[in-house]
Amino acid sequence: MSSAVLISIAMTVVGAATPILLAALGELVVEKSGVLNLGLEGMMLIGAVTAFAVTYSTGSAPLGLIAAMAASAAASMIFGFLTLTLTANQVATGLALTIFGIGLSSLIGQGFVGRTVDALHRTFPAALAEHPVWRLIFGHSPLVYISLVMTALVAWFLTRSRAGLILRAIGESDEAAHSIGYSVIGVRYLAVAFGGAMAGLGGSYYSLVLTPMWADRLTAGRGWIALALVVFASWRPLRLLAGAYLFGAVMTFELHAKAAGVSFLAPEFLAMLPYLATIVVLTVISVAPAGGRLAAPACLGKPFRATG
Amino acid sequence: MSRMNRRQLLAGSAATLALPALIGRAGAQEPLNVGFVYVGPVGDHGWTYAHDVARKRAEAKFGDQIKTNYVENVAEGPDAERVIRQLAQQGNKLIFTTSFGFMNPTIKVAQQFPDVHFEHCTGYKMADNVGIYNARFYEGRAVIGTIAGMMSKTGKAGYVASFPIPEVVMGINAFTLAARKVNPQFTVQVLWANTWYDPAKEADAAKALIDQGADIISQHTDSPAPLQAAEQRGVYAFGQASDMMAFAPKAHLTAITDDWGPYYVDQIQKQLDGAWEPQDIWWGIKEGLVGISPYNEVMPADVREAADKVKNDIAAGTLHPFTGPITDQSGAERVAAGETVADADLLKMDWYVEGVQS
Q1: Domain-ending residue, one of B105, B135, B165
Q2: Tens digit of pLDDT for each residue in B250-286?
Q3: Which of A138-147, A233-242, A263-272, B292-301 comes out lowest in average pLDDT?
Q4: Domain A3-295, architecture per CATH
């Protein structure tokens, strides 16, 4: 296999990994604050359609990205109001948000089906972006670099900043954090909004970069993979990065093995690989001493009512 | 025309009680009500879109003589039965149900409304008041296969496929046979995406095929994503179900299009004449049901001529895409020289011709 093909495959892996990394990073922060938002898929779809609609109408992709983040964050606020203020069940509300997002994105997108925009492919000048080798580093969409920067920022925020410490405290023991005067609900609202904005950014990757168009259910279930990835990464940003790229690599490997006519592995086996990888990694994490089971925020999914 | 979604339709069921009065008043001038049930949104730019264009065509043709009612986004299953029954109760005398999964609901409702006529698309169950219709898409595949054989430099096409059902298998075979007639060394690498619709996966599948040396992409999945991937990578591709030139102005050579208009006009005319009867229809290029969209300007004259010739010969009945000798993947002869594959065998095709790599 020539190096040009290998670079090309690597580029495809980056494309498969980036949107799920973006969405999963947001969800990781949400879950660290003790909230489980299963509405990722719906928020990604709302982001995808908003990014496309705004970019198509205004011709400005940056504006499209900002609008996508705002729209998905707004959708996440519905979830926030129901689960944080009204203490509704988070699992049921999250699922409802996904169903709502599928319907709403389809409604908004009605007038945009069958249209296309210029893909947001390049960040750097063509000399670098289309260089046969350097394109591996410089040939990506701005969203790819944003996802990497955000991974570093989230990692720094959670482990090195005071605000991150407060957020983690709220996720681990909401009662204790509340009793020393932190606003549990306020911080959780912020986390949920951040998760929404990141999901919107992830969704935009589909409608502006990977397949620059809008069609119903464009993300085709990637939100669920992002959700699983957070558990897979045992709530750690750098593991999340590795996990997203591992998933991207496995999904791409499946297609390349089929395209190369690899016949000693059944196609059904190849299709199974991403899920097999999930099971293997979950097993490894769970038996490790500082195990994955213990890594889950203690208050994850539990409603909080301020008392006293 | 009246447009409604499922919820409005169900919510309006109370209003249907008033319908007989309305019909009585309209008397002899009352138009024929024709119902359509769609599986997707009319804006899907593919399957349902094509059916809706045909509905509008029929409406334009018959004017005041008919009134069409459609319901979009109907899920295959129990919902479909409710919607079809509603349409029958609301006075539609001819109802087109346009997805394979509407087959059993159509038959069931048809038993309850013996004086309503039903037309079901792509199924195989008939009744005294249920006819079936389908399109010979493989004829279009033969045309684009011819183009692929002539336009490809590497002699290798990539084929993004959904599931190995006869409909898809016969398309792959027709494409490959036609391409190998032009270039006997031509090969077609099939990649089973195991989905009808997953734009990101379809795009990555097309990229994988291009990385493996394919310089022309064909697809039997529903989104324009493979075309967009081809456009990015600078190779050629074909549209699916409707003209997708807008998605890939450089890559899009042509598309196989569905034009159900002539069939709908024909059936509605029969209903108006009182001459409707259940039929098993499988129309193709000759009847205008399967079409080829305008060619991309990059196609040289000789390629256009060759493609037109295949199209015209199929229409004239002088060429059948499945004419022997045909050998399968193992090199064994499956169809003897001069023979053609019978329709019944096409509809259960489960083997690949030589040149297909899957």
Answers
A1: B135
A2: 999 999 998 999 999 999 999 999 999 999 999 999 9
A3: A263-272
A4: Orthogonal Bundle (1.10)
Domain positions in chain A are 3-295
Same domain? For B33 and B59 the reply is yes
Report CB contact under 8 Å: B201, A220: yes
pLDDT beyond 80 at A290 = no
Q: Which residue of chain A is at minimal alpha-carbon distance from B158? A: A259
Cβ distance of A211 and B203 shorter than 8 Å: yes
Neighbours of A287 (CB within 10 A): 10
Q: For strand B290-292 and strand B252-258, is the pairing parallel, antiparallel, or unpaired?
A: antiparallel
CA A300 to chain centre: 18
Give the residue, A279 or B38, on which the prediction is more confident. Answer: B38
Q: Write the residue in A210, A211, A271 that is nearest to B194 by C-beta.
A: A271
Contact call for residues B267 and B276 (beta carbons, < 8 A): yes
Min Cα separation B6/chain A (Å): 14
**Minimal C-alpha gap between A135 and chain B (Å):** 14
Chain A residues in contact with B223 by the CB 8 A cut-off are: 211, 213, 215
Count residue pairs from A and B with Cβ separation < 8 A: 106
Is residue B191 domain-shared with residue B228, that is, in the same domain?
yes
CB contact, 8 Å: B196 with chain A? no
Domain range holding B175?
137-258+290-357
Return the structure tokens found at A119: 């893909």
| Residues of B in Cβ contact (< 8 Å) with A141 | none
For residue A265, the SS3 value is: coil
Same domain, B226 and B84: no
Are B162 and B116 found together in one domain?
no
Instruction: Confirm whether the ipTM is greater than 0.90.
Output: no
pLDDT for the residue A292: 52
| A8 touching B (Cβ < 8 Å) | yes
When the pLDDT of each residue in chain B is averaged and rounded to a whole number, the result is: 89
Question: B31 and B56 in one domain?
Answer: yes
Residues B170 and B314 in one domain: yes
Q: What is the rounded CA–CA span in Å between residue B133 and residue B96?
A: 10
Tell me if chain A has a CB within 8 Å of the CB of B226: no
Radius of gyration of chain B (CA): 22
Tokens of B115: 């004086």
Q: What is the pLDDT of residues B186-238, one digit of tens each?
A: 999 999 988 877 889 999 999 999 999 999 999 998 888 999 999 999 999 99
Is residue B323 in some structural domain? yes
Q: According to the model, what pLDDT value does residue B1 have?
A: 46
Residue B207 domain-assigned? yes
Among B43, B44, B191, select the one facing A258 at the smallest CB separation: B191
Position with higher pLDDT, A231 vs A83: A83
What's the token pair of residue A228?
């699983």
A113 to chain B, closest Cα gap in Å: 6
- What 8-state DSSP symbol labels residue A209? I
pLDDT tens digits for B16-66? 444 444 444 444 468 999 999 998 777 777 788 889 999 999 999 999 999
Question: Residues B235, B348: one domain?
Answer: yes
Per the structure, the count of domains in chain B is 2
User: Are A256 and B189 an interchain contact pair (Cβ–Cβ within 8 Å)?
Assistant: no
CA B221 vs CA A114, B39, B191, B224, B239: distances in Å: 16, 16, 11, 9, 10
Give me the pLDDT at residue A216, please: 83
**What's the pLDDT score for residue A187?**
96
Q: Which two tokens stand for residue A183?
A: 């606003």
